[in-house]
User: What shape does this take?
Amino acid sequence: MSSDGLEASVVTERDPGERHLDDHLVGYLQWQHSKGRLVLGDLRAGFSQGLVFGRGSGRGRGRPRRDSHALGLRSSAENRAIRGAAASLGRGQWLVVVLAGQLRRDARFDEAGNVRSLPEDGLHTGPTALAGEVALSGQVAGLRLRWQREDRHVGLVLQHLRFGQRLRLSSRYGRPVFAGRSQASGAIDGGWFTGRRQFYGQLARTPSSWSFVGGFVDRRRNRLRWSGQVRSYGPRFFSPLGSADRRWKTWNERGVVIDLRGSRWRTWAEIS
Assistant: This one.
């Protein structure tokens, strides 16, 4: 629902077998002005290639992403939103977005009371799932700063997380991924257009690991387009609000995608 610069949204969803009609209930209120926005409620931000703040699943086979215009959440996807406030302001070639809020998501605990895993499916049907329903709380603060011209842009993303319980996450092979109750992370990104070619990339850093996504798109005059993307997620890169390329986890994964397409056909190759 929207009117005269105001926009409101409410989404509710229940999976088969869940007890409550409002098992998943999110909403937001947005005020839009010519130079900025204010959003209150449930938020999910997406900046650059999504390594720190990501929106969507990235199923584009190596396609570049852009900053998401939307900040409010109107999706049935669970365990990826924060509840708080976000403000964006654009002046000339500069854009600033500030957000802060509370994090609530499902968790699984070990015998010592540490969070051992963070399920994302949002299913609350069994005793283990019900015991861990929105059991992990926390606070989130984030900043997006971007300078942009017609043919290029550079940007910065900062994030600080603090959890109500201690996390002790491991991979399926038992290797440590993250341990602690807080994390500060950041990323730099950029893009450059020259003629029909586009180059882009984002490099993110946490206290324990690095991750990178970068690539190019070349659009030819005969409607032929080919693109390539390289991704490298560090083995201990922990980004609970990020969104990996094509639904893969944003840790311990490397890959290359080459995509070639015409007006009526497409072929691609991937190594990961």
